[in-house]
What we know:
single chain, alpha/beta, seven-stranded mixed beta sheet, 13 helices
Amino acid sequence: MNAPSQPRPARLTVGVVGAGRVGPALAASLRLAGHRPVAVSGVSDASRRRAAELLPGVPLVPPAQVLERADLVLLTVPDDALPGLVQGLADTGAVRPGQLLVHTSGRYGTAVLDPARRAGALPLALHPAMTFTGTSVDVQRLAGCSFGVTAPDELRLAAEALVIEMGGEPEWIEEAARPLYHAALALGANHLVTLVAQSMELLRQAGVAAPDRMLGPLLGAALDNALRSGDAALTGPVARGDAGTVAAHVAELRKHAPATVAGYLAMARTTADRALAHGVLKPELAEDLLGVLADGSAGAEGGPAGAEGDSGR
């Protein structure tokens, strides 16, 4: 947090609407910066446990009372629930003029807060580019975490200062770019979890006693290389054009884990396309490889890989 030129926000009372994995962690980090959490809302037993662990002594109250008590309100609910929540709070008169209303959705900018803005709220979109566990480790992980920040120009410095106080690094995202920004993060982080979980399951089937220990160094090196070098870091049988090896992979997966075949083929085809475009895969080796992938796709459960569509799942 080496930005002494940033204005230090006044000490604020903080409320959380939605005690999922994100809200309590952010409020706890704001507490460390000198702000004062005063209210949190949560319905499920898990939410209440998280609030008790990360925000001890902070009362659990309905959402309207959170807004009544707090200068800064964190709206940390699922993306699809956010528009209805904001509209409902505005319609019931829960929003106070001059109140900082912050949501943490990656998908939305500040336009989703327009009903509250019309009621006098100050809208901020602060999305931490981090995966959360719902435990105290999340507060530590915020150190150095990038936040996607969207706010009106007059609130930009305040938004960036709050991020810095939580230990994060502000990254300005234009309103229109928020969906693309969020898709990029989901493509990398969310799908990575699926890929790693599948890889561990297959290694267990192959007799590996500690797949996590085997994958840790490999995946750590692959991630580091990718972040440093991008597509130049591509390696493995697809990037080398080893069509026979890829065909053997598809056959084994079809036999032992058929649910993984479509994903393997989709990622292999994407890898081949990128390797070709960046000169990693030699064109003379690509024809046989692409033929194997096409044959595998035609035999995959549910028809050709193209039938899976581009739904962004």
